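Annex B. Sample input.
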Amino acid sequence: MQKDFHDLFPNERPVIGVIHTGPSPGVPGFFCVDSAVDRAFAEAEAYVEGGVDGIIIENMHDFPCVHESEMGPEIAAFMTRVARAVKRRASRLPVGIQILFQGNRTALAVALAAGCDFVRAEGWTYAHISDKGMAEACAGESIRYRHMIGADHIPIFTDIQKKHASHALTGDLDIGDIAYGMTLHRSDALIITGSHTG
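Annex B, continued. Sample output.
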């Protein structure tokens, strides 16, 4: 049975710590899987001791990012190793996964394999132009993939508008229109964020 946002985060204003993994295998700057896993484990330990309500893991240092169709299996393997270590250290906290750029199916597979609790997805509805190229809406393929792999219990939290992107294509839609479209397309929770990281 799928948990909703409030099941995972009962506090009214939960604090979710972010672990940005080092570069993945194949990405310039990659050093070593074991060292990346050790670093993520140490960060998870600091977050647990600091009293956060949850943790999300992102491959933020995989720049320049590629579309999911251009990712190799090494990304899923690496993120699964990292996520399993984080989940082992933060076993009582909800742990989520986001894989850039728009690697929503990969994130679902990693979450299922590593025993994680949620996924953050981008580009759910309405196409837009990002700093990595065109981002097509992906709700249909993501929901079907989640069902196909037996991961219906993993909720997907979605960004209202992707950061680092132009939304001129949807300039005639206000935030309420976009939120309605996202819930219609089975987003389990909506994330409102700024236009850039940081």
